[in-house]
Inverse folding.
């Protein structure tokens, strides 16, 4: 039975959308019994390389702060971002359960990493994928989507009531589901496999690689809330006292009703996703587009890590909270994606001037810190 975007504006009951696995032992790299997988080879080839991304110490950017900080480099997933994890989990769960088959049209709204992650998974399994994009999408991301064989549909006009583009995309998805008989909406804003993928792998990898250190602070950028929900649920379920910090865009509707223009893709949301945690988040830090730019550039100049826009927001959030983090604490910054896809925006002085104004005095301050 198809489900549409109808009630996506409201936070759903926790028991309906929780990323907590309970007795659910599904893992995207664990194939279903042969009679349940419809002949598909699950999580083979390149998809088997998803996960296991490195945790590296950040030794320069926060010096001489008295806490230890590590970065989880999700950019080293094969599709280039943390969105590889839920993409493979959602599609392969649907293959296992028979919700989709080789003739199904997969559809989702994304102008960036989720679209690329899904395009990669669908290309591997020979599935048809249509990605709804918007004018904020970069030409590079469009080219990557096309290289994987994805169909592209541009949604140009925002919803007249909210001024946000996402509600318009969701209405279009509803139309596709009603008009195409064998179609499947990924529904990244509500799918329990979105948060479940991070519950099953991401936070476990962090804890393992800390090698006995206590995870005191975990900084996570928010958009669909799949990452923060999955990690937070795991930590709560297993009694870890970790303080989870949500890094959100100024003007996002996830943790605030305040309106503000947003130009950094992949950070914040025009709706409050069903996966949004209603408790357990220690603090929400709202960052501006300029915070993201400065954070990214400092990260590249000090640690030689070329990361995407939301990663810069995470770095700026840690710096803003640096006086609150006790001496000897261990903090982890989850960096969602790679910076090559932002060379024409975040790392372009011309783009920054045109979209954010003259940054000369801001960059001078950054250079002084490097």
């Amino acid at each position: 039975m198809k489900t549409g975007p109808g009630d996506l504006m409201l936070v759903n009951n926790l028991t309906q959308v929780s990323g907590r696995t309970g007795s659910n032992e599904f893992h995207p790299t664990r194939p279903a019994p042969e009679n349940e997988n419809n002949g598909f080879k699950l999580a083979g080839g390149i998809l088997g390389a998803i996960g296991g991304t490195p945790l590296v110490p950040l030794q320069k950017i926060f010096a001489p702060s008295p806490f230890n900080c590590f970065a989880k480099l999700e950019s080293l997933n094969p599709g280039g971002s943390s969105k590889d994890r839920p993409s493979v989990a959602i599609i392969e769960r649907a293959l296992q359960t028979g919700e989709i088959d080789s003739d199904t049209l997969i559809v989702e709204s994304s102008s960036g990493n989720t679209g690329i992650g899904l395009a990669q998974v669908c290309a591997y399994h020979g599935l048809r994928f249509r990605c709804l994009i918007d004018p904020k999408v970069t030409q590079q991301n469009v080219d990557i989507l096309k290289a994987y064989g994805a169909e592209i549909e541009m949604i140009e006009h925002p919803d007249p009531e909210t001024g946000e583009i996402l509600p318009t995309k969701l209405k279009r998805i509803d139309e596709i589901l009603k008009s195409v008989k064998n179609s499947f909406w990924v529904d990244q804003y509500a799918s329990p496999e979105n948060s479940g993928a991070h519950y099953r792998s991401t936070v476990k990898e962090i804890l393992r690689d800390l090698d006995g250190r206590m995870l005191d602070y975990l900084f996570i950028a928010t958009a669909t809330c799949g990452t923060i929900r999955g990690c937070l649920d795991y930590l709560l379920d297993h009694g870890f006292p970790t303080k989870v910090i949500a890094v959100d865009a100024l003007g996002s509707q996830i943790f605030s009703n305040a309106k503000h223009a947003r130009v950094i893709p992949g950070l914040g949301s025009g709706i409050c996703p069903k996966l949004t945690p209603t408790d357990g988040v220690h603090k929400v830090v709202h960052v501006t587009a300029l915070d993201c730019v400065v954070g990214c550039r400092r990260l590249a100049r000090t640690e030689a890590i070329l990361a995407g826009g939301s990663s810069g927001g995470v770095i700026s959030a840690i710096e803003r909270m640096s006086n609150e983090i006790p001496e000897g604490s261990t903090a982890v910054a989850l960096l969602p994606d790679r910076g090559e896809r932002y060379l024409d925006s975040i790392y372009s002085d011309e783009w920054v001037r045109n979209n954010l104004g003259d940054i000369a005095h801001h960059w001078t301050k950054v250079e002084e810190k490097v």
User: Anything to note?
Assistant: Confidence is low (pLDDT under 50) at residues 6-40. The first helix runs from residue 14 to 17. The CA atoms of residues 29 and 43 lie 5 Å apart. The first strand starts at residue 55 and ends at 57.
